[in-house]
């Protein structure tokens, strides 16, 4: 008798997420998830009508956490300085420090995992991912536009793609750190983005 | 009667590569590859003992092409200038132009696809990917070390991770362009890497 259905549900989702990050959605069976979560098939289908439905709920949970993480880190950075350039630099630095403090290898990104198998998912799922990525673009771009008004910058830099570059650095360094088994790659690459922003916008002496 | 076994082999490999890029290795069945390549099951197993063996040969072929692409582009860049900074800037610009000239959406990176399902592959396969990524690090780093001797630069920049940044930009922008369905993202991000290198090493006036 299970008195805590929410915890069974969470157990299944956590096991599925970790299995999918190792084997991909197409390489993950319901049986493998059940075994990893240590629950019965009945319990699984009580919570999820199908593997596809589990996949949808997983990416929605991931996107919600991602948004929360983005917004909270932005609020934190904005609380630490009044200057928009400093806010953005602190924002990047906070992610850098967070990744540096991880003791386990970074588990990977569920968005990238799904995108590598995009034909297995319907448009609703791909839209959830797209909206998450566009939110990063929007938030960083807002900050860059405020910075642009206050600071001179080196050359005609395209702000939208400069905003995208943060997500690009995250996703690309996840791939490299996965292959080379070096967690520090992620922090190092964020440091380069930080440095690039400084070089672009630093005040002329 | 098939008089051209090499072409059947290539047909199978091309069909498999494209299917894997859309559905992942775990989501790709031998039947799907056979259907896509329009060959018989007998022909498939004449050429490949198993799906795993096909997976190994595919990534080896991909790595060989990747290395050839890297080395040829480097030789081309070195032929266009004697200055190491200009050579590296041209090297990046050549990739940017190549991607800009693509008419179809970029199909994705087989390395990243495999890494997203790393538990489905043995160490030999993951080593092929790792060696390819390390070759990019080595080649770009050699160039950066030559540049460092000749140019002053802004601050203590870590050259190894700066070399890695090219691969990071490639892989990260593949993910973003896949999600947002914007091919131009890859060229835009390469342009930022190009710009960052210029800001780091440009001669002081």
UniProtKB/TrEMBL annotation, chains A, B:
Residue ranges for the DNA-binding region feature of this UniProt entry: 29-48
Instruction: Please name the source species.
Output: Fodinibius salsisoli
- InterPro entries membership: DNA-bd_HTH_TetR-type_CS, Homeodomain-like_sf, HTH_TetR, Tet_transcr_reg_TetR-rel_C_sf
PROSITE patterns in alphabetical order: HTH_TETR_1 (PS01081), HTH_TETR_2 (PS50977)
Instruction: Identify the residues that the record assigns to the HTH tetR-type domain, covering every copy.
Output: 6-66
PANTHER family named among the record's database cross-references: HTH-TYPE TRANSCRIPTIONAL REGULATOR YJDC (PTHR47506:SF1), TRANSCRIPTIONAL REGULATORY PROTEIN (PTHR47506)
Descriptive protein name: TetR/AcrR family transcriptional regulator
List UniProt keywords, sorted A-Z: DNA-binding, Transcription, Transcription regulation
Any keyword Membrane?
no
Q: Which Pfam families match?
A: TetR_N
């Amino acid at each position: 008798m299970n008195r805590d259905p929410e915890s069974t549900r969470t157990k299944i989702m956590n096991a599925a997420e970790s299995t999918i990050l190792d084997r991909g959605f197409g390489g993950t069976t319901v049986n493998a998830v059940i075994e990893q979560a240590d629950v019965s098939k009945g319990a699984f289908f009580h919570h999820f009508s199908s593997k596809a439905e589990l996949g949808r709920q997983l990416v929605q949970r991931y996107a919600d956490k991602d948004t929360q993480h983005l917004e909270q880190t932005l609020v934190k950075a904005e609380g630490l300085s009044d200057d928009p350039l400093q806010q953005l630099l602190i924002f990047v630095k906070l992610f850098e420090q967070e990744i540096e403090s991880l003791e386990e290898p970074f588990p990977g990104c569920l968005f990238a995992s799904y995108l590598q198998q995009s034909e297995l998912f319907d448009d609703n799922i791909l839209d959830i991912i797209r909206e998450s990525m566009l939110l990063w673009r929007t938030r960083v771009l807002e900050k860059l536009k405020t910075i642009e008004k206050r600071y001179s910058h080196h050359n005609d830099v395209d702000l939208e793609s400069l905003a995208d570059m943060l997500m690009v650095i995250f996703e690309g360094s996840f791939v490299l750190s996965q292959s080379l088994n070096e967690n520090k790659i992620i922090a190092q690459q964020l440091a380069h983005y930080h440095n690039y922003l400084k070089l672009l916008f630093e005040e002329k002496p």
